Amino acid sequence: MAARAQRRRGRTDLDRNRLVRRRSGAHRVGLAHQAPRLPSSGLERQPAGARTPQRAQPRHECEGAARVRGGRRHRLSDCSVGEEVVVKVDFLIVGAGPVGLLIAVLLGRDGWRVTVVERWPTRYPMPRACTIDHEALRILQSAGVMAEHSELFEPSRGERGGYQIRNGEGELLRAINWNRAAESGWANTNGFYQPDLEAVLESMASALPTVDVRRGWSATAVAQDVGTVTLTVARTGNEAHEETLVGSWLIGSDGANSAVRDLVGIDSVDSGFEADWLVVDYEPLDDREWQAFVTQYCDPEQPATAVNSGPGRRRFEFMRRADVTVDDLGRAETAWQLMAPWNVTPDNARLERHAVYTFRGRWANEWRRGRVLLAGDAAHLMPPFLGQGLCSGFRDASSLAWRLSLIESGSAGPALLDSYGSERSTHVREIIEAAIEIGRLVCELDPHKAAERDVALRSERNDPLLTPVEPPQPRLGEPSLTRSGDAWAGRLSVQARVEADGVTGLFDDVQGGRWQLVTLEADPSAAVPPDLARWFRSIGGTISSVSADGLLRDADGAYRTWFENHGCSVVLSRPDFYIYGTGLAADVVPLLESLRGALTSSLVPAQEGALS
Ligand SMILES: Cc1cc2nc3c(=O)[nH]c(=O)nc-3n(C[C@H](O)[C@H](O)[C@H](O)COP(=O)(O)OP(=O)(O)OC[C@H]3O[C@@H](n4cnc5c(N)ncnc54)[C@H](O)[C@@H]3O)c2cc1C
């Protein structure tokens, strides 16, 4: 695939993807748009003050003209004397938040030329997300993050599974097992510090020779034709200074107030759920052990959340009551007053930040307009009661990156993107609804309704048949790029430890493969016709057999258990770790043929989404 991609990139070098850099006052392409002045999340009512535009970073006109990778020269841009600069770009990404940066790393590692445009000159220094799940960590593993930076993540621990819902009297109403090992090979839930993760992602993106992260530029206009997207950007703080970028695809990962979403005219649907919450991050100065990793205090007097927010950090969140103004809630004194009942005081804690956010549930009603795609908060917002906003954004990144890579390398057609929105929107809406459901439990201010809620939760708690596992793990929505009629298709696949040649580790590190065909015990390779095996390898597929004592040893017996629980002995997983299809030994060839058919049929033209 790499050689073909390189050939194709070489061809397109000659005939498309031009970046024309103009001086201020030059022509504007497409719809003009003033970038919003709000903080990126759009939720923070009281920003920490670090978002004001800072010094403009000087940038040499010809920076990044050519860089060397592994001995090959990739021309990122060609400088000419005078006003025009022609630049080669495969992908434009608007927004260098965690989702945009992850997409840049995933595409850049494949050698694609990526330009990321970010309106702020420096990174947002404050955390929003503070917990991350196993699936998101496997995605970060695929981007190369976990090999060097697994210490950023602290697995959930604490009593009763780590996630507790308690009422105003402190009675435990529901306990959820977040402490378990999970099917992606990583701890089910982990605390982390978002600015540290963003710093790692940005340094990885910037270190890639084909990725250019351009800070201090705001997207202001988008136009597209059948083959390209044209993006106008303006210097933050000097809007009269504009440039025009051209790429094959544009990804809008520009947060809740997405300019890209507005520019291409995609509407959002609002769930109607909305509540203001004070978010307080602090560094404990004592070494107190907290009973739970996350506790939701469903106290109608003062709903609150306490959470382990990564190594050496804690967070409290407090809902705004009707008799408190946003301004009052946002004061430091209020934060200390609200934390006092837990004996968190200036003597034993250092306040890192306090800010009021509006928690709401919302989703874009389209994820693609022609060559423009949405990802992350630009596509969906949810209240953070399940810690799933960023995790969902990382799922978008993974789902998008493999599709775009296959399309640009010529192994699939743009029609493959039709299933991006249908798969992701159904999946994320189920999670948004679950987060809102927990939110309604926690945010209840009416004491009578709160008492009724407690009765209902007590009876659920005492029902041995009910063991809540949250957040939910929905199936991908339809239409999806999966084998139809398969009960497990579209569900999350498994990663566990294997051993080969004396090396024991997680499957993706030891055996690897983007598309992974894994069988239990019997090696299926001989049954696969050579042309099919060659094609599968060309898209990054691997065929492996795990067994109790073979060449690829099922180190903990987890694969055997998984196959037994799923009633199959073969699984074909996609690069975003969702199951394409399952079966028995005889299904190996039909599964691969079915995948080849699906990707090949996407090459048939005339199925592109409508242009804006
Ligand atoms: C209080 C709180 C707690 C949370 N807790 C969790 C949690 O525990 N777990 C979890 O998974 N999620 C959590 N989330 C959600 C998570 O923080 C977000 O989903 C995630 O940060 C979104 O990342 P993003 O990259 O999509 O958007 P952002 O991080 O918002 O990045 C968007 C970027 O685009 C840039 N941008 C915007 N407009 C333009 C423009 N016109 N031109 C150029 N650049 C532009 C912005 O400056 C910004 O840098 C929480 C959110 C909040 C508010």
From TrEMBL:
Query: Which InterPro entries does the UniProt entry name for this protein?
Result: FAD-bd (IPR002938), FAD/NAD-bd_sf (IPR036188), PheA/TfdB_FAD_monoxygenase (IPR050631)
Q: Which Gene3D superfamilies match?
A: 3.30.70.2450, FAD/NAD(P)-binding domain (3.50.50.60)
Q: Do you know which Pfam families this protein is assigned to? A: FAD_binding_3 (PF01494)
Looking at the record, the residues that make up the FAD-binding domain are 89-434
**Where do the segments described as Disordered lie?**
22-60, 461-482
Report the domain of life of the source organism: Bacteria
User: Which keywords are on file for this protein?
Assistant: Oxidoreductase
Q: Which GO terms describe its biological process?
A: 3-(3-hydroxy)phenylpropionate catabolic process
**Keyword Oxidoreductase applies:** yes
A GO term, aspect molecular function: 3-(3-hydroxyphenyl)propionate hydroxylase activity
Write down what this protein is called: FAD-binding domain-containing protein
Classification of source organism:
Bacteria, Bacillati, Actinomycetota, Actinomycetes, Micrococcales
